[in-house]
Amino acid sequence: MTRKTLVTGGAGFIGSHLADRLLADGEEVVILDNLSSGARENVPAGARLVEGDILDTELVADLVRDVDSVFHLAALVIVQECIRNWDLGHQINLGGTIGLFRAAAAKGIPVVYASSAAIYGNRSGSECREDSLPMPISPYGADKLGCEHQARAMAEIHGLRSAGLRFFNVYGPRQDPRSPYAGVISKFCANRAADTPHTVFGDGLQSRDFIYVGDIARGLVSARNRAADSGGASVYNLCTGSEKTLLDLAKEIDSVAGRGTTEITHVKPRAGDIRMSLGSPKLAYDELGFQAETSLRNGLTSLWNSLEDNRKA
Ligand SMILES: NC(=O)c1ccc[n+]([C@@H]2O[C@H](COP(=O)([O-])OP(=O)(O)OC[C@H]3O[C@@H](n4cnc5c(N)ncnc54)[C@H](O)[C@@H]3O)[C@@H](O)[C@H]2O)c1
């Protein structure tokens, strides 16, 4: 029997790659998205888009009743916007997730939801493991952590099966470089292509654990399959376990593009920005058999080539 799957936020960057993968695996895919940061063009042919809001609890319950599992990726993802619109971010990122958990618990189906490395806050000098003390320093990170607590409570009280995935810095095709808060990799690629300088907040020695979006889609599916077979609320890092500074990254992109060196303009550090972010991939490997397979060089090359194709089209 064909598996039927709901992907919230499926018109966005990560959600659309996940939808591609589910369709390729022969699943029927329904996407719930309000297109606030996602785009209709991202929705793959073969998926059904329902344009609506995660805060519409009746719509969410209706959609959940008709599927076998849910991936919940819809969120207000821009940290600076969550700081400006604290209450709205809280409603969408935590309130929307609770509504979705309640609907999934009522139907008795598993949920895999996007948490974030932002729950760890500003840890210096050590890698983040799932049992490290979470200390979010932004409302976005605090609400993502709240989702994990709610998943655990919902497992206790209503038997919800779930997996929360703490994504580190995800990059790849379809990440919108025009957004002022797009991932640093898409922005650096856009700057390289246009031959404009990179803007770096602070000294550029802040580091990140960059993971390719295709690896994330694979990790999401592995987590769903495990959550379907086991009870309770699990949480995993999805990361590579290796870090790069923004200055390293700028160099690597110049090398992939093969056209000289991009100038860097340093400006004041931003409030809420994290200095170092490095994850431990061990638990996801041990329990899900998941390991990132795409090297930074290969991931950047795929991204660069897809951007070149778009520019030529
Ligand atoms: N990209 C990363 O590096 C990263 C890192 C950690 C966690 N995450 C999480 O992964 C998930 C996907 O992020 P992304 O990078 O693909 O971002 P994205 O902005 O491309 O995708 C989010 C999608 O959710 C939709 N959406 C937003 N608010 C909604 C609402 N109220 N109702 C319905 N749909 C709504 C948007 O239109 C968009 O299509 C998010 O939960 C994000 O917090 C992303």
Automatic annotation (TrEMBL):
Sequence similarity: Belongs to the NAD(P)-dependent epimerase/dehydratase family.
Q: Entry's InterPro entries?
A: Epimerase_deHydtase, NAD(P)-bd_dom_sf
User: One Pfam family of this protein, by short name?
Assistant: Epimerase
Give the species this sequence originates from: Paracoccus onubensis
Kindly tell me the pathway this chain contributes to: Bacterial outer membrane biogenesis; LPS O-antigen biosynthesis
Q: What is this protein called?
A: NAD-dependent epimerase/dehydratase family protein
Start and end residues of each NAD-dependent epimerase/dehydratase domain: 6-238
Domain of life of the organism in this record?
Bacteria
